[in-house]
Amino acid sequence: MELAPLLQYLISGLTNGAIYALIALGFVIIYHATTIINFAQGEMVMLGALCAISIYHLYPSLPLAFLGGVVLVTVVGIVFERLALRPVKDPSPITLIIITVGGAVFIKGVAMLLWGKEAYNLPSFSGDAPFHMGTATILPQNLWVLGLTAVVLLGMEAFFRFTLVGKAMRACAYNPRAARLVGISLSRMVQLSFALSAALGAGAGILIAPLTLGVYDMGTMLGLKGFCAAILGGLGSSFGGVLGGLILGVAESLATGLISSGYRDAVAFFILLLVLFIRPQGLFKGDS
Amino acid sequence: MNSRKLLNPWTLFGAAVLLAAGVLDNDYYLTLINFIGIHTLLVVGLNLLMGYGGQISLGHAAFFGLGSYTSAILTATYGINPWLALIAGLVVCGVTAFLIGVPALKLRGYYLAMATLGFGIIIYIVFTEAQTWTGGPSGLAGIPNLSVFGFKLDTPKRLYLLIWPVLGVILAISANLVDSRTGRALRALHEGENAAQSLGVDTSRLKLLIFIWSALYASLAGSFYAHTLNFIAPASFGFMFSIKLVTMVVLGGMASIWGSLLGAAVLTVLPEMLTVFHDYEVIIFGAILMVVMIFLPRGLVRGIMDLWAFRRYKKEGKIIA
Amino acid sequence: MRRTVILCGLVAALAGLMLLGWGCSKPAPNEPLVIGGIFSITGPASYLGEPERNSMEMVIAETTGKGGVNWRPLKAVIYDDEGDVTKARLHAEKLIQKDKAVAIIGPSLTHTSMAVLEVTQKAKLPLISCAAGSAITAPAKDRVWVFKTPQTDQMAVARIYQYLQKQGLKKVAILTVSTGFGVAGKEQLLAQASKFGLTVVAQEVFGEKDTDMTPQLTKIRGTDAQAVICWGTGPAPALVAKNMKQLAMTIPLIQSHGAASKKFIELAGDAGEGIIMPAGKLTIWNQLPDNDPQKAVCKEYATKYTAKFKAPESSFGGYAYDAMNMLLKALQKSEGNPSKIRDELEKIQKFVGVSGIFNMSPEDHNGLTPEAFVMVKISNGQFKMID
């Protein structure tokens, strides 16, 4: 086995894995506050990418596009929670699954009407010239993704561990009744978690748009992969989610390079099934 | 109660099937009705799982596909008798459902949903990639027709005469299942797993049973589908089709056998009749899922009837059954 | 009990509603001839179906404006299959049974065409498919009632290999998408390689919605391939171009005709420069020499289409345009009799269309040759004819 391609597989896997990790963190936030799994999370990623692209076409400034995209999608996240989840009288898992899946399909359909079925380009944040690391190469945009993942991860850990709001949010998932007794507004916490995760999803979408192009149906697969990463990491843990994402990315890349490219997408879901069946609490112990 | 009256749903169903057989002579409508039958078969199975088992499968299209491809490959490639192939499909689906269900159903909440979702996507990829068997994404052609005692079922009318009576039997079996001891245990399960367990119900065995049962219905539907179309391609068995099936269940009403028929019929016929549907189809499916689950969790018909009953109750000041 | 009865009533009412639609009258002789169309107008393949529908409607409107075929008006009944085989099949039944179409144009995709031809063959109705797969019309002996207008993968591959042979290349790597289009391309790429003295040193695939092909390309980079041939449609081929640039690969990238659109140039951006691909002559019609018989036809189609729909013309619409025009020719001698239409279609010779020059025969229901393609190169964001 030559070493040269192996390094490239690893780099490709890590950069792709960072994308999954960012999306996984969105699942983790909502799960932290509500123990809900939001199947519409992938669509927030897509909305982020497409909103930013549209803003960029109106006024070509990347920071503005980034901010605008994140703000718009955060609003969508809040509205989604307010209209589709809060009125639910019987919040059993099956009901919530159906509603969030319905939400995902609905958002995707609306995006198809708004943006059409075409793919769109967004320029890279700092050029397209790849960095060379030996024989392997990496794009500046990939570094942005890796960097943001690290920043978000640390920020989230700090938020949930050290801030009052973060602790209150975790309390809601842990024991909603007790949380309410100590004066935490459950509905506000849920709303906040949806807003945060939508913002995070949108940020991820904008960041990867220069790499993957933006198209109305990009969210489903990315969402599901991010979801696999979250499960892999044990759902409740942000470190676990990031590690899960990176492992997933590297596994896919290695499987493509060394085994067969045809079953690449199956790798993620195969790992998902294995983890569910053998270690449903995730590869790493969740922090609770 | 008065189920022996002539106006019971079963006699109505039988009469409607017979009447349609006598009157209908247009292949287009018959094909459409056959697809309604096939979809109903799928939806009834999924409904048993969702409405009675309290579990959701987001990869039901995979079982539909497994049944379809088993029938198609065995008959088109190996020339095996279609009925034997159909039975082989049932075996394949039953065993697969068992293998997926045993570990997944031990867990609670979201886990079966996730496992079926992952499973559905893997199976879809296998249909696309295993080109030597499945013909790959451009599909598998040359699937022969079913025949009964040497009588070839090669027209929509003849297929109709197979699919709908079989569907009647399946509906009856399902209704019986629901009314049986198992059915009551299932309902207890839906109300709450702990409660059911304390009543002495072996919940994980029961959930597994119902999961396999629904996979078998899907397999049967898949075999019929393959022999109706004489051609299958992986695109019919993707994630979106699984979601469509869930939508049919939700629209018709969970835990309602006849609701399944209604849900399948409405969502098969409407897109066919309303051209407006096309670009909005995905949005409409999404909206149905959300709106019905939020406002009419018992399904469209029951929900509306509940609202109506509630209004009358308010007006007359008494309860109506 | 009351509820189930109401429910049953609803089901019965629905059945009744469907019965109402049943029982349509037979067409009188002076009624318009119905031409059916089934395209993927919405859904993932709408980029094919939409221009196809537009082109078909354009020809029908024009013919009706001129008084129809032999003074008999034409009527188009067009359905949208959304790329779904079940729907395509239902629409075919509807066109045959309810609309009494004399011929059907479409569907847009290989798998939907395969599902539809089962019923049109049985009903003995001519079908002119707008999908690329060669299995649709081959073997023509079994597909008596089926024709198709797009160039096949076989021709695109032959054209690419001819070009590579001229360049003196010997080893290629192929990277194909996991859809009907990609699989058919892969089969042809593998089958024809030896005929042109080429060896396929790596064969990789990618998913239609994949967003990163660097692992596959890394593997290819590790071989001694002298060129990469990518076979796909939609945004993925553009990503392949970007990924190759990222990996600093310098060997030429050759795309299939599935990437021969302005959208591809836009998506690939800088990474698109220098990419070579086969394309229908419509793509570069203004660069054709004046003695090329297709130039006039392409020009006419492109001008009419852009004027009418305020959108750029596409080769996909050209498939339906050619199909419609050939059908008109066949209709003139057949008085709307499906069997005669079929016979006339099979006799079509030297028909100059947008997609090529058609010569039909009982052995060949496509009638095109590899010369229907030209090789183009992207330079300065434009397609340039190079061979």
Supply database-style keywords.
heterotrimer, B: 321 residues, mainly alpha, two-stranded antiparallel sheet, globular, C: 387 residues, alpha/beta, Rossmann fold, 2 domains, five-stranded parallel beta sheet
What does this structure look like?
The complex is a heterotrimer of chains A (288), B (321) and C (387). By secondary structure, chain A is mainly α. Chain A has one domain: ABC transporter involved in vitamin B12 uptake, BtuC, CATH 1.10.3470. Helix content of chain A is 75%, strand content 2%. A two-stranded antiparallel ribbon of chain A has the order 1-2. In chain A, a hairpin with a 2-residue loop joins β1 and β2. Chain B has one domain. Chain B has a two-stranded antiparallel sheet with strand order 1-4. In chain B, β2 and β3 form a beta hairpin. Chain C has two domains: 195 residues, Response regulator (Rossmann fold); 146 residues, Rossmann fold (3-Layer(aba) Sandwich). In chain C, a hairpin with a 4-residue loop joins β11 and β12. The radius of gyration of chain C is 23 Å and the shape is globular. The N and C termini of chain C lie far apart (76 Å). Chains A and C meet through α1, α8, α9 and α10 of A and β7, α7, α8 and α9 of C.
List the topology elements.
The complex is a heterotrimer of chains A (288), B (321) and C (387).
Chain A: H1 3-34, H2 41-58, H3 62-85, H4 93-115, E1 131-133, E2 136-138, H5 140-162, H6 164-174, H7 176-181, H8 186-212, H9 218-232, H10 238-259, H11 264-278
Antiparallel strand pairs in A: 1-2
Chain B: H1 9-23, H2 27-52, H3 60-77, H4 82-105, H5 111-129, H6 131-134, E1 140-141, E2 147-148, E3 151-152, H7 156-179, H8 181-191, H9 193-198, H10 203-229, E4 231-232, H11 239-252, H12 257-273, H13 277-295, H14 300-316
Helix pairs in contact in B: 1-7, 2-7, 2-10, 2-11, 2-12, 3-4, 3-5, 3-10, 4-5, 4-10, 7-8, 11-12, 11-13
Chain C: H1 2-20, E1 33-39, H2 46-65, E2 74-80, H3 85-97, E3 103-105, H4 110-123, E4 127-129, E5 146-148, H5 153-167, E6 171-177, H6 180-192, E7 199-206, H7 214-221, E8 227-231, H8 236-246, E9 253-255, H9 262-268, E10 276-280, H10 293-309, H11 315-332, H12 338-347, E11 351-352, E12 357-358, E13 373-379, E14 382-385
Parallel strand pairs in C: 1-2, 1-3, 3-4, 4-5, 6-7, 6-8, 8-9
Antiparallel strand pairs in C: 10-13, 11-12, 13-14
Helix pairs in contact in C: 2-11, 3-4, 5-6, 8-9, 11-12
